[in-house]
Amino acid sequence: MGFHWSRTDSDIGAGFVRIAREQIAKAIDGARNEKETSERRVHEARRRCKKLRALFLLVRPDFDAWRDENRFVRDCARGLSAARDIRVAGSTFADLMRWAGRPVAMAPREAGNTAGEAEALQRFVDRMHELQARTDTWKVGRISLDSLTSGLAHTYRRARRSRRLAEKHRTDEAFHEWRKHAKYHWNQLGLLEECAEDILPSAYKSAGDLGEVLGLHHDLAVLEAVIARSPADLHAEVDAGFLADAIERRRAELERRIATLGRQVFAERPEALKARFDAYLETWPAREAAE
After folding, report:
1. Could you say which of 124, 180, 234, 267 has the lowest number of CB atoms within 10 Å?
2. Cβ atoms within 10 Å of 255's Cβ, excluding its own
3. Among 256, 267, 158, 278, which Cα is nearest to 203's?
4. Distance from C-alpha of 58 to C-alpha of 148, rounded to nearest angstrom
5. Structural domain boundaries of the chain?
6. pLDDT of 97-122, one tens digit each?
């Protein structure tokens, strides 16, 4: 039915469980899909984990298990991170060199530890089955429309705070923290888009654009970490001086774009955001019934 609440849900809590089960099932199917490369399977699994975590954070005011389940899904995703970082570094390096006007020929990448990746994906599937089974025991009776707007405002507030810290300290860690909360906010807007579909498209797009640019910023940090640890993992000739300069110039360009998008996405105060979404959701059932 999609990553959002629907008028066919018997209540808000039931809709939450339905959405969670759908995302868990898609995570399992994506991780198992042997028609896809390991890279795509890992990407799909991690994407579903981000959606699940955004969902748990949205209902956190009235879902007692949110903290444990959020940590559980976080740890599931972390189990798939190692191989991804090497791939991200390689593609980021190639893209950066094209951007800097010095394209490089990348040597064919070795197949890698496919057995290890297969084991990691199977562990992920097994743990998702554990989570799936626990959905039958979740206590969701207190989850309401107010839970959603309160959860949305909480995530938004943390994203605004992490934005201030990133702009103050300008470290990779601070920008990465902002990226996490900005992505949660984007996914939560997606969860509510059916409730305010005439209002949200532009806000949702801006939040998505911000998450994308923050992701490119994070990819540069991953590339630097791989270069510092083992440049041979890139399977390419690396001019260290030119690369360092290109990273700094590209980072500065991205940070200018991030600053512009950050002002757009997080201009509103959290209290005003909650009040606005309270109004959207208060009239949502009537709008749905009239369609």
Report:
1. 267
2. 18
3. 267
4. 6
5. 12-290
6. 999 999 988 766 554 556 678 899 99
Measured between alpha carbons, how far is 232 from 66 in angstroms, rounded to an integer?
41
What per-residue confidence (pLDDT) applies to 238?
A: 86
Give residues with Cβ within 8 angstroms of 104, minimum separation 6: 93, 94, 97, 236, 237
Determine which helix (DSSP H) or strand (DSSP E) holds 51, and give its type and residue range. helix 38-58
CB 50 within 8 A of CB 30: no
**Quick one: pLDDT band at residue 244, thresholds 50, 70, 90?**
very high
Query: Which residues, 6+ apart, have CB-to-CB distance to 216 below 8 Å?
Result: 254
**Residues 23, 28, 34, 40, CA torsion sign:** positive
CA distance 210 to 255: 11
CA distance 110 to 100: 26
Find where tokens 């059916």 sit: 194
**Residues 3, 18: Cα–Cα separation, whole Å:** 9
SS3 readout for 117-161: HHHHHHHHHHHHHHHHHHHHHCCCCCCCHHHHHHHHHHHHHHHHH
Q: Which fold has domain 12-290?
A: CHAD domain (1.40.20)
Answer for the pair 64, 123: CB distance below 8 angstroms, yes or no. no
Residue with tokens 């300290």: 169
pLDDT at 87: 84
Left if phi > 0, otherwise alpha if psi is -120 to 50, otherwise beta: which for 54?
Answer: alpha
pTM attached to this predicted model = 0.91
> Tokens 């809709």 map to which residue?
15
Q: Rounded distance, CA 120 to CA 193, Å?
A: 34
In the chain, the percentage of residues whose pLDDT exceeds 70 is: 91
